[in-house]
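Saturday, quiet lab. Running sequence design on the structure tokens for the scaffold JK sent over.
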């Protein structure tokens, strides 16, 4: 019987609890995650937002711990780090990487994943270990609470036990990350979908109603439609010429396929493609969304009138007449208003897949 303790660390700097058992046979033979000698134990930091999904994430995490201990405890030094507020996951991740962690695992929904991804960068550059010769820290995901739109792109079930099995196998794959730059300030990173105008405004309002689960997206959309006006935008793709897109309702830039609780908005996007998929909805009325919502969820909307799609590695967007009222968000996080530049960072992070 495995005897194991988990450290609850409500601070940015994690510490590790070592379990004094030999390597599990299947893990000892697969060192894909550690990149070191077979005798080396893996240091894994689990970043948990206990208040996610109205506290459901914290409750589900506690129930999951016995399985995680039994599956990983004999091979890993595990740190459970609970976030205490917004952006705390970013700090935890940066400290873990600097201390040479083998993996940082986001536990929860896309909001926690988004913060952990931003923790992989600092001052416009990737965070590195204090030991410059150390292996690369991998990104992991255990979807809990409301689940993860990002996970849908890989076809992963919303099953934390499956996620732990992926972590135990430790297979890595390079994935792309998007970076957003505005007028001054630090760059912002995203792994899933960034969006502009109506959908971003809906996401901003939806964040106020998270206690209603996925219904929050419906409530947010209804509130966003109130006094909404389509806008003409100027867009530059891959450093080409500026193009005018008239009466833009929403514009989505996908590094992955899904957002908004399962809407397959950028169906051709994939985090290993080295390009975004940009989908633009123009001159949509409220009833267009009602009539075509099923197509947005199934990913068959690209054939609909006034919907266009293109592949790009760099996208600049600005208003023709500046109003500072066109919302921008990424991975469901409100970022402010246009103008913005979106660029792809190919293979920027290794992810446990």
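Result came back. Writing it out in full:
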């Amino acid at each position: 019987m495995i005897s194991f303790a988990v450290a609850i660390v409500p601070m940015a700097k994690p510490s590790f609890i070592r379990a004094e058992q030999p390597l599990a046979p299947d893990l000892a033979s697969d060192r894909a995650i550690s990149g070191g000698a077979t005798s080396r134990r893996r240091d894994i930091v689990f970043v948990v937002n206990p208040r996610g999904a109205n506290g459901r994430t914290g409750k589900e995490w506690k129930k999951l711990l016995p399985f995680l201990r039994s599956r990983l405890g004999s091979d890993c030094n595990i740190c459970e780090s609970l976030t205490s507020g917004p952006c705390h996951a970013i700090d935890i991740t940066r400290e873990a990487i600097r201390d040479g962690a083998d993996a940082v695992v986001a536990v929860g929904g896309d909001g926690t994943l988004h913060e952990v991804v931003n923790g992989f960068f600092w001052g416009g550059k990737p965070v590195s270990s204090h030991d410059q010769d150390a292996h690369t820290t991998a990104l992991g995901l255990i979807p809990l609470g409301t689940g993860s739109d990002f996970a849908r792109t890989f076809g992963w079930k919303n099953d934390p036990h499956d996620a732990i099995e992926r972590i135990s196998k430790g297979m890595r794959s390079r994935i792309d990350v998007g970076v957003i730059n505005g007028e001054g300030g630090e760059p912002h990173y995203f792994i899933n979908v960034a969006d502009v105008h109506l959908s971003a405004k809906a996401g901003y309002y939806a964040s106020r109603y998270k206690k209603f689960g996925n219904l929050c997206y419906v409530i947010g959309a209804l509130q966003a439609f109130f006094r909404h006006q389509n806008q003409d935008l100027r867009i530059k793709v891959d450093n080409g010429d500026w193009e005018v897109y008239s009466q833009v309702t929403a514009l989505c830039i996908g590094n992955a396929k899904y957002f908004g609780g399962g809407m397959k908005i950028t169906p051709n996007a994939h985090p290993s493609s080295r390009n975004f998929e940009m989908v633009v909805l123009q001159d949509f009325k409220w009833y267009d969304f009602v009539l075509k919502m099923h197509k947005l969820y199934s990913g068959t909307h690209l054939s609909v009138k006034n919907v266009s799609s293109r592949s790009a590695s760099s996208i600049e967007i600005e208003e023709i007449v500046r109003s500072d009222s066109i919302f921008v968000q990424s991975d469901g996080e409100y970022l402010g208003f246009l103008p913005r530049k979106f660029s792809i960072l190919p293979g920027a992070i290794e992810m446990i897949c």
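Notes for JK: Residues 1-13, 15-38 have pLDDT under 50 and may be disordered. The chain has nine helices and 18 strands. Ask whether to fix the surface positions before the next round.
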